[in-house]
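Weekly puzzle thread! Below is a chain. First person to post its structure in token form gets bragging rights.
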Amino acid sequence: MSLEEEFKKLSKEEILKVFRLFNKNWMTVDSLWFSTVEDMFGVEAAKKVNLKVSEAMAPRMAKRTMETFGLKGDKIQDLAKALKFIVWASIQKIEFEEFSKDSFIMRVVDCIPQKTRIKNGKEEFPCKPMGLAFLTNFAKTVNPKFKVECLRCPPDPHPENVWCEWKFYVEAEQK
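Winning reply:
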């Protein structure tokens, strides 16, 4: 029996469990490849590879999410909805706060990769360049007028309950 056939037999709660399982497994692959590259070639090499991967995967993820949900990308709320479906959103605790009709803030309040690094005796990973590359490419794929500003992200100092914050907004029309 195929996976799709198995899914058809599952309850909504079971499908959510499988969804979380797939995301945990994806996060495991992501963290293991990064840790392996870091251990073998150093953190700078791992950061370079991670940046390239982030830049390349963001537009693909944005396009697939928009197609899946029929989002047109004409409203900033379309971007907020699309970001709720990035692969690590079911693992991380991410909050969205509408700032205005043309902007919102996305905040990661529980960052599993960072907590895992610290638990394993490593420093916080300075993920700001990678986050900015991913989120900028994701936003501009949804709509070239959508912009992102990093409010805080490691290596920036942050409170214990907020790992990073990003403001998304519609670029003002030039007159």
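Puzzle host: Confirmed. Bonus trivia for everyone else. The domain at 3-170 is CATH 3.30.1380 (Muramoyl-pentapeptide Carboxypeptidase; domain 2).
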